[in-house]
Amino acid sequence: MQNTQDNIDSKGLLWTERKFDYPDRTIRLGTSFSGIGAIEHAFQRLGIKTKIQFAGDIEPNCKTAYFANYEIDESRWHSDIHDFNAKPFRYQVDLFVGGAPCQAFSLVGARRGFDDTRGTLFREFARVVKECQPKVFIFENVAGLFEHDGGRTWDVIKHTFEDYCGYDVHYQLLNSKNYGIPQHRERLYCIGFRKKTHFLFPAPIDLKYRMYDFLEDWTESKYYDAKSGKKFLSPTGNTINGVGQFNEFVFDVNEVDDKYYLSEKVAKYVLAGGTKNFRTSTKTDLDIARPLLQSMHKMHRAGVDNYVTYCKEKGVNGIRKLTPRECMRLMGFKDSFKIVNRDTAAYQEAGNSIVVDVLIAILKQLDITKYGVEG
Question: Which of 21, 220, 324, 363 has the largest count of CB atoms under 10 Å?
Answer without folding.
Answer: 363
